[in-house]
Amino acid sequence: MKKYVGWFTVLCWLCWDEPATAQNMQRVRQNLDTLCSAAFGGRGYVQHADSVAAQWLAKQFSVLGLKPLPQQSSYFQRFELSVNTFPQPIKLQIGRRKFRIGEDFIMHEASGSSYFSKLKLCRLDTLWLKEGAAQTDFLQKDWTKTAFWFGSATAKLLLKQKPDVLQKFKQAGAWLEVTDGKLTASIAKEANRPPHFKFKRALFDSTARTLRLEVFAEQIPHYQTQNVVGYVRGTAQPDSFLLVSAHYDHLGTMGKTALFAGANDNASGTTFLLEMAAHYAQNPPKYSIVFVAFAAEEAGLLGSKFFVENPLVPLSRLKFVLNLDLLGTGDEGITVVNGSVFTRAFERLQQINDQRHLLKQIKARGRAANSDHYWFSEKGVPAFFVYTMGGTAAYHDVHDTATQLPLTAYREVFGLLTEFLDTVP
């Protein structure tokens, strides 16, 4: 029943036609809640949740008055990727105790499928990772009904082994990485190892001798996704462009119960992009301004890479690219990636903040391939990636939810960035 209610809700959102005005914080919260809802499935690849989000975003673009770019018949720029997913229930039992996906453990993104009613749980001997008698003995044994457990430091050494040694480890029934760190999930393009659990050390019983598991991984080699692109025509120089971007995708779901809602990363940036679109639809700038909600950022900046390789506007006519990611806090100010690269633009941003006393501080960083600005700046297009500092520590986990985001400096960042774009020479 819940499934049908969820899809009915999505249809209602797609049909919502209320006109917008910039910086409507009630609408910001509503959009944030929508993007983070279970009906949007973490904006991942199970049940095409990313496409549900893309359709909703295209509807918002239309309501706000954005148009598809000239020569484009829709708001979508489609492309393919390979992705590994976990669409079915995931079960893990160590000894007699059962554990919860998302809270107690997560799957490594490159995990494969397996079902074992019982595996022998064995600590990985680090001597097996070194040439010698212990490694020779290890290579001669059958480990298919064994689950190896090890720490995160050992995990890094394991993946650096010679092909024959690594292949032997991959024949094991499962890997259990016991970690002191937080459970940080990611996305892989393929399954290249046995089920690899990342497990909280505080919950691990090293005296346990058995492990039971059920994991189904589905690798999709030609998954079709889409960037969502709209624009507002400029008033004075419409053949020159500003570009504002935010990735709308996230990690999706893991099993049937773990939802990675991605509130700060990056529903926050996506809602911010919609607010900027609302503002500029009503206040067109001198340059045309393109708004791009990028897909597949979490899979390796793939949406922005595809856009730069297949540009819908000439890259030579882009005056500036402003990428919005992780904008849910701000009590400690913002950081600007590429701020120390495009120094004049950063100085102008800093000057606006100094004059208007908006944010506590603005920090500059150098080049980094950590969001969708990257491919533009690699092609020589001036581009900033702006993220807020302070507040929530949730990142790539099930705790990055809409209710946890304070949006502390949302209005101030909005004022700063719109004035910055308005003064691009």
UniProtKB/TrEMBL annotation:
GO terms for biological process: proteolysis. Residues 227-417 form the Peptidase M28 domain. One of its GO terms (molecular function) is metalloexopeptidase activity. Gene3D superfamilies: Zn peptidases. PANTHER family: METALLOPEPTIDASE M28 FAMILY MEMBER (PTHR12147), PEPTIDASE M28 DOMAIN-CONTAINING PROTEIN (PTHR12147:SF26). This is Peptidase family M28. It comes from Flexibacter flexilis DSM 6793. The lineage of its organism: Bacteria, Pseudomonadati, Bacteroidota, Cytophagia, Cytophagales.
